[in-house]
Amino acid sequence: MQAGLLSTYREPVKNRNAFAWGVSIALFAFYFLLYLPDYGYFPDYLNLFLRDTLGFQKFNKWNFYGLLYSAGMLVGGWFMLQKHGNSRYHRLRTYTLVSVQILFGFSLPFVLKLLNQPELYLSYLWPLSYDKLFPDTLAQLPVYVALYFVVTSLVVFPLLAFYKGKRFYCSWICGCGGLAETFGDPWRHLSSKSDRSWKIEQVTIYSVLALVLLTTGLMIADASSKAALVGRAGTEEGARVELGLSLAAHAEAIRGASADTLGASVAAIEAEVAAANPPEWLAEKLDGVRAEAAAGDVPGTADELKNMAYAAMPVTPISGLAHSMRGFYAFFIGALFSGAAGVGLYPLMGTRVWCRFGCPMAAMLGFFQKFGRFRITVKKDMCISCGNCSTYCEMGIDVRQYAMGNLDIKRASCVGCGMCAHVCPRGVLKLETRPDTGPGGAVQVWTLDL
Ligand code: SF4
Ligand code: SF4
Ligand code: SF4
Questions:
Q1: Would you call 382 helix, strand, or coil by DSSP?
Q2: Which residue among 118, 123, 325, 430 has its CA within the 20 to 30 Å range from the CA of 422?
Q3: Residue 393 near ligand 1, beta carbon < 6 Å
């Protein structure tokens, strides 16, 4: 039996008692502090502390969060390997997950920011990172980076999910899954294995995917309608679109700037706005931008400028709906569900609440996995019904039921963490990717021993 199994339900942090509730409340409070100021609920205490108390200009709350997240994964990964490090599979994927987070989830974006370049999170792709394929996001990227996001999200990932299962991403690359596998390991057994949970997850996860598809479609339709207006050079509408696009680009550039250069940037923008001869009410929006710049608030200035860019755009029939959907998704799904609840519920409902009930990437890759080659094979008549596999499945799959019925497991939700096979005392389970038939009718088999 693997180390750790026997103590699972004895430790207070792991068995939903008062201590676990306290940890959950603390995690929720931290995420509210992180996200809610961006929606105007209260002052941005984290950014104010970093900037005014500690004097950091280029290290904002998101960089702090990236650092904390990486540290959580590093320490959590070390603890996880104390229990499960006797498996080569778990050693390799834990090293990979932590390295990807440190390199691509924290270091690269921060270094790019220090170089005044856009912060790129290359390991987060659409539809998990819901705005990666929005036209305004792609327009601000170098062409080769924009191509990387489009081709990887729409072609490479679905193909890999078909041939290898979604574990290539969910258990080896994704930062959200990475936190669950490392920092969240003490709570993986808390996921519900009931049929009711399975039914709920099928409804919620595909609903979130539908929301992303709808929002992305609306944003593309909005951009197309505005692009058509740009072509109407010389008209008032055409000029307003050009001004709006230019202000949005300035807003992104300012996010990577320092407080020292804010004054110069805003002066240049004021001149541009004056030359465009906008309506008086739009020019008044500059007051908000000036006030934030005078306070030296870099994110505040960028946000005000983005508001102004949006206000500058002529209202097409589709734009109101597109931007409302974007705001709805960003707040309810992006901030509250995937952020606050996704991690805050670790000590109460297990580590993959977001992965299981909400993540649109899981829905998309799961669809290709279900019809692809990945499966967990079951050795016939070997299961002794101990239940370790089901207990430790973070995605709430009742693995034992399949094993007892001598049935291979092909579930869209399986993230291929391999823990079920690892904790099985009889070696009943094996993760495999094989086609049913190969060239000439022979069956090809590729296996990864655990
Ligand atoms: S289910 Fe979604 S959030 Fe979870 S690991 Fe996979 S892609 Fe990441
Ligand atoms: S079925 Fe096994 S490999 Fe799949 S998510 Fe559950 S524990 Fe991980
Ligand atoms: S498959 Fe293995 S871990 Fe799961 S119930 Fe059977 S013997 Fe136990």
A1: coil
A2: 123
A3: no
Please tell me if the CB atom of residue 415 comes closer than 6 angstroms to any atom of ligand 2. yes
- Taking the alpha carbons of 291, 294, 298, 302 in that order, is the dihedral positive or negative? positive
183 and 247 inside one domain: no
- Nearest residue (CA) to ligand 1, atom 6: 170
Give the pTM.
0.85
Q: Which range marks the domain in which residue 280 is found?
A: 231-316
For the chain, first and last CA: distance in Å?
A: 15
3-class state of residue 159 by DSSP: helix
CB 296 within 8 A of CB 259: yes
| DSSP per residue, 220-247 | HHHHHHHHHHHTSTTSHHHHHHHHHHHH
In a domain, 217, yes or no: no
Residues within 6 Å of ligand 3 by CB: 383-389, 399-400, 403, 424-426, 428-429
Count of beta carbons in the 10 Å neighbourhood of residue 303: 19
Q: How many residues does the chain have?
A: 450
* Coil/strand/helix, residue 404: helix
Asked if residue 345 and residue 288 are part of one domain, the reply reads no
Whether the CA torsion 408, 414, 418, 420 is positive or negative: it is: negative
| Cβ of 173 less than 6 Å from ligand 1 | no
How far apart are alpha carbons 35 and 31 in whole angstroms? Answer: 6
Number of domains in the chain: 3
Query: Considering only CA atoms, which residue is closest to atom 4 of ligand 2?
Result: 414
Ligand 2 center to 98 CA (angstroms): 20
pLDDT per residue, tens digit, the chain (450 aa), is: 454 565 676 676 777 889 999 999 999 999 999 999 988 888 889 988 998 888 887 788 999 999 999 999 999 999 999 999 999 999 999 999 999 999 999 999 999 888 877 789 999 999 999 999 999 889 878 899 999 999 999 999 999 999 999 999 999 999 999 999 999 999 999 999 999 999 999 999 999 999 999 999 999 998 888 777 776 667 777 788 888 888 888 887 887 677 778 888 888 888 888 887 777 777 778 888 888 888 777 777 887 888 888 788 877 778 889 989 999 999 999 999 999 999 999 999 999 999 999 999 999 999 999 999 999 999 999 999 999 999 999 999 999 999 999 999 999 999 999 999 999 999 999 999 876 655 555 444 444 433
- CA angle centred on 362, ends 360 and 363, rounded to 5°: 65
Say if 202 falls within a structural domain: no
CATH of the domain at 392: 3.30.70.20
Co-location of 302 and 346 in the same domain = no
Residue 332 structure tokens: 């309810």
Cβ neighbours around 354 below 10 Å, total: 24
